[in-house]
Amino acid sequence: MPEGDTVFLAGHRLDEALAGRTLVRGELRHPRWATADLGGRDVLGVRSVGKHLFTRFSGGLSLHTHFRMDGAWHLYRPGDRWKRPGYQVRARLEVPDRVAVGFSLHDVELLPTDQEARLVGHLGPDLLGEGWDAGQEAEATRRLAADPDRELGVALLDQRVLAGVGNLYKAEVCFLLGASPWTPVSGVDPAEAVRLSRKLLLANAWHPEQSTTGSMARGRHHWVFERTGKPCFRCGTRVRVGGQGAGVQERPAYWCPHCQPGPIA
Fold first, then answer.
1. 0.90 cut: is pTM over it?
2. Which among 8, 42, 231, 245 is placed 20 to 30 Å from 59, CA to CA?
3. Has 240 been annotated as catalytic?
4. How do residues 157-189 score in pLDDT, each as one tens digit?
């Protein structure tokens, strides 16, 4: 599932391409919204909230989309060949010189702009939100610390606690905190976990490459994420992976047994 920084960057690029322009074509290939015609509406802007995107139009209307596991927005010039097949298209927003195409978007909804909170009001503070301040940090810390016995990796992925962390940053935050993903929240400083999560997301928010090590060299972008069986960059111990979470919420958890002491799967 895309991380919050991926969604943030997609929203920024869509905003740059579409905001202040009038749609010459606006269609949604979704059973519920197939008859909706957005053509002729002005695009007021695009904003991300955690892993959610809202494209706002004149007339007080918003389009909500969510990437889930495999969704994406692409930008093209008119006439360009698309990089994904047409049958995956769920939305197409076109202005005179740019075409925004939403592929494999699992959540698509048109709603009044003043009702956006209905879809995101339950989320914790947005780690990449424009309004981030000491109060937001304190609220995210409070939510993370509210269940001290909860596994840290599970808590970090809970968008109701703090919005934006996905499996990549979960793994990397746990590594940098020196705790296994199964360590209870009480075993770390929750304020430090929040600050570190925001720091990593913010460091990668303006480019598609995601590095948590500070290196862009091939194979050195991440400390433990998707490095199963490879030596830890710090101690040389082989990185391990185990399942964490239950049912549809289960995700692989990567960790270094030496650098991240604590409970394991």
1. yes
2. 8
3. no
4. 999 999 999 999 999 999 999 999 999 999 999
